[in-house]
Amino acid sequence: MKFIDTIKNIWKIDELKNRILLTLGLLLVYRFGAQVVLPGIDASQLSGLADQTDGGILGLLNAFTGGAFSNASVFALGIMPYISASIVVQLMGIAIPYLQKLQKEGESGRKKINQITRWLTIGITLLQGPGYIYNLYAILPGSAFLMQNTTLFVASSVIILTTGCIFAMWLGEKITDKGIGNGISLLIMVGIIATLPQAFVQEFVSRVVESNGGVIMILIELIIWFVIILASVMLVMAVRQIPVQYARRTSGGSYEKTMGARQFIPLKLNASGVMPIIFAQAIMFVPSFAGKAINTTAVGQWMEAEFANIFGFWYNVVFALLIIVFTYFYTAITVPTNKMADDLKRSGGFIPGIRPGTETSEYLDRIMSQITLPGSIFLALIAVFPAVMVSLLGLQQGWGLFFGGTSLLIMVGVAIDTMQQVNAYLLNRHYDGLMKSGRKRKAVA
């Protein structure tokens, strides 16, 4: 009953209700566009493309686009070029002084960085578009192309794919500004969830209809799935609280350190989110392509066979090691311990037993290094768990992708972030929040 009352309260807040309806409407537009096939392609002959994207690396890309990749849709590239551009700009910000300067300029600098990211997104899409079209030529029969192999068809399709990516990016930004939640992340999550029913039906048919384990195996898989979801929630929410003492300013303007409220600095166990997995997956494309380039040799054939299978042993060993390395790397560039120490010193705060300034920065950096190790290992285990499930229990590969990795972590992270935003609206209006810790007394009339 409390949950039902909370849902009712959500619709009592006009601003929150309008934001939710706008978000749902824009997400519906995105899902509709994922079903619109590129002009010049016979939609009835796309079965070959769907078969190739059933599992493997292409299956992973298809999951992120919500099936648009296998539909030869106008949104076939999804929002992934924008994600790639954002990662590149973020990494370049470490080495390029101009981007570092923009990062320090506040809102104006952020707008310029967003503009650079958009232009880079167009460039990446223009490179990926022709590759996608020629991949269609390699897979689909010639009769599937109503315009045949013409320059006009390739050029128009690349322009449409680029426009589709930019439109998806615009939808994501509108959701962030006018809706609820992070728009880009919501688009990815909705694409992932869109493939969930089909993946479960295929697993159900395999287990029950084909008598490959029966209903008992389905129940066991669902229990394991919920346990992994809980573990992912714990990973996303886990923090190490560093106690901080804030001094009060006396009437003479000086600080009195013996007085003040005690608070905490929350350091996340997994401060890098899913970015290490995305980085690692981008790198894992390289061995497979390198193997294809030198497939006349024994080493090339081994690389092509092992690293083209995302559920293979060596793929996941290297994948896990890369995740651990990238977790340390991304945490180092995104958690500014020096800035945290400076801000703490300027606000009159200090960590008990630690001197303000450099010593505080070194202390925070040491704590981050200590908690990042278990966080990175836990992240790597969740990332490779789909391969474990496919190998041990014989899951369908499409269903196995939901037992960990980027798919599950994105769904969990986006769901928690969206709930926190809804929770904030409820608390600001003196309603009970969605989350257990977010309760506030109702205003007294």
Automatic annotation (TrEMBL):
Q: What organism does this protein naturally occur in?
A: Gangjinia marincola
Name listed for the protein in its UniProt record: Protein translocase subunit SecY
Q: What is its main location?
A: membrane
* Compartment annotation: Cell membrane; Membrane
- Enumerate the transmembrane spans: 20-41, 79-99, 119-140, 152-171, 183-201, 213-239, 269-290, 310-330, 371-393, 399-419
Share what the entry says about its subunit structure, partners included: Component of the Sec protein translocase complex. Heterotrimer consisting of SecY, SecE and SecG subunits. The heterotrimers can form oligomers, although 1 heterotrimer is thought to be able to translocate proteins. Interacts with the ribosome. Interacts with SecDF, and other proteins may be involved. Interacts with SecA.
Q: Which InterPro entries match?
A: SecY (IPR026593), SecY/SEC61-alpha (IPR002208), SecY_CS (IPR030659), SecY_dom_sf (IPR023201)
Q: Does the keyword Membrane apply?
A: yes
Query: SUPFAM superfamilies given for it?
Result: Preprotein translocase SecY subunit (SSF103491)
In terms of NCBIfam families, this protein maps to:
3a0501s007 (TIGR00967)
Q: Entry's PANTHER family?
A: SECY/SEC61-ALPHA FAMILY MEMBER (PTHR10906)
Q: Which UniProt keywords apply?
A: Cell membrane, Membrane, Protein transport, Translocation, Transmembrane, Transmembrane helix, Transport
Query: Its biological function?
Result: The central subunit of the protein translocation channel SecYEG. Consists of two halves formed by TMs 1-5 and 6-10. These two domains form a lateral gate at the front which open onto the bilayer between TMs 2 and 7, and are clamped together by SecE at the back. The channel is closed by both a pore ring composed of hydrophobic SecY resides and a short helix (helix 2A) on the extracellular side of the membrane which forms a plug. The plug probably moves laterally to allow the channel to open. The ring and the pore may move independently.
Task: Name the membrane topology term.
Answer: Multi-pass membrane protein
